[in-house]
Amino acid sequence: MTLAVDCGGGGIKANVLDSAGTAHAAPVRVPTPYPLPPALLVDTVAEIAAGLPRADRLTLGMPGMVRHGVVVHTPHYVTRSGPRSRVLPELVTAWSSFDVRAALGARLGLPALVLNDAEVHGAGVISSSGVELVLTLGTGLGSALFDGGRLAPHLEWSRAPVRRSTTYDAYVGEPERRRLGDGLWSRRVVAVVEGLRPVFWWDRLYLGGGNARRITPSALERLGDDVVVVPNSAALVGGARAWDLLVD
Questions:
Q1: What is the C-alpha end-to-end distance of the chain, expressed in Å?
Q2: Quick one: which of 38, 113, 142, 184 is 20 to 30 A from 242 by CA?
């Protein structure tokens, strides 16, 4: 039984799933609290876990660069009140090199796996055949690359410029979707996909995250048969599958 936790910029979702990915309770979602020092994230996960069935292990996905369970950089949790608000230097210091895996394992008494949230999402949808790219559309843009089911080193594509000084994160993130509307925003998603296609030459691209369902039908037709939209629930299913896919 796996406690799967999906930490986003706006909300933290969790559930307990068996090894087949079947949920054993109703999923729980709470707003992401801000400001969010590491200790508060650990407390929040512990509080959520207390209201769910007992688990044998924990998987947590969070935004940013995470290596071996240790935070290198996280974009939202260093801010005063959430995405695109003021960055607080004391939170940058607190999160830098923070071992989330060790902290959660000690607090909950469970073996823990901590990854980038798009990587966990990908674990829930990939077929483990060929080169598979996962892009998550939500507060910003997340990404994960797999080859034969093996996870490649994480790249923060969201921080790269897509044009002039505009990053992918800003170009197709939630604030721009709200400003443009689904139609114009969907055209941007198509532009991003077509721009990345000659970089990756994937066998399959999965579009997930909370906003994937907002891509218009006309935009989906332009994306091609090698692009699949997947449900956001994959982020929790991936928490169970990640142990088999990503842990040697």
A1: 18
A2: 38
Alpha-carbon torsion, ordered 168, 241, 28, 233, to 10 deg: 50
Task: Tell me the DSSP string of 71-139.
Answer: EEE-SSTTBSSSTTSPBPHHHHHHHTT-BHHHHHHHHHTS-EEEEEHHHHHHHTT--SSSEEEEEEESS
- 3-class DSSP state of 46: helix
Rounded CA separation 55/7 (Å): 18
The answer for residues whose C-beta is within 8 angstroms of residue 101's C-beta and 6 or more apart is: 68, 69, 70, 112, 113, 114
Confidence (pLDDT) at 163: 85
CA–CA–CA angle 165, 145, 234 (5° rounding): 100
Q: Is the model's pLDDT at 222 over the cut of 60?
A: yes
Cis preceding linkage at 111, omega within 30: no
Q: Which residues lie closer than 8 Å to 224 by C-beta, 6 or more apart?
A: none
Q: Judging by DSSP bridges, how do beta strands 131-137 and 204-208 pair with one another? A: parallel
Residue 143 has which token pair? 């990404």
Mean pLDDT of the chain, nearest integer: 93
Phi and psi dihedrals of 74, rounded to 5? -135, 130
For residue range 227-238, list pLDDT tens digits in order.
Answer: 999 988 888 899
> 38-96: per-residue pLDDT in tens?
999 999 999 999 999 999 999 999 999 999 999 999 989 999 998 889 999 999 999 99
